[in-house]
Design goal:
By secondary structure, the chain is an all-beta fold. It contains no helices and nine strands. The chain has a single domain, classed as Jelly Rolls. Strands 1, 2, 3, 4, 5, 6, 7, 8 and 9 form a nine-stranded antiparallel beta sheet that branches.
């Protein structure tokens, strides 16, 4: 969108965004989301994301999010275990390998920063 706006996160309609089957550890978690804003270079994203109960793995981008509804436990490989509930703010670092155990359908608002693009290789490289 190219203008200021507000919307109700709990009431927002989301579009299906299927998980890669290799990410599903157990259950049948389903993901949906809504991209609200993207920078012109595609490196900054703002949106809403939801996942239903089950267990899935992911490799994260630099992200800050706020949980609006639901509950989950996120195990960060080699790091902390995050307990997520409504009102929780979370920070994930690019490259974090995570396992999401979703106890109740979780909905969050997020801001992702993909960082600068890698420089292009010189011609002939």
């Amino acid at each position: 969108m190219d203008h200021s706006f507000a919307l109700s996160i709990p009431d927002a309609d989301l579009e299906p965004d299927p998980l890669d089957p290799s990410q599903i550890v157990s259950g049948a978690p389903e993901v949906s989301g809504k991209l609200l804003w993207e920078s012109p270079d595609g490196r900054r994203l703002r949106g809403i994301w939801q996942i239903t109960p089950g267990v899935a793995t992911d490799t994260e981008a630099d992200e800050m999010f706020v949980v609006v509804s639901g509950r989950a436990t996120v195990a960060v490989e080699g790091g902390e275990t995050l307990e997520l509930a409504p009102g929780t703010v979370g920070i994930l670092r690019e490259g974090d390998r995570t396992t999401w155990t979703v106890h109740e359908t979780l909905r969050k608002a997020y801001a992702i920063d993909l960082g600068p693009e890698a420089p292009e290789a010189p011609e002939g490289a």
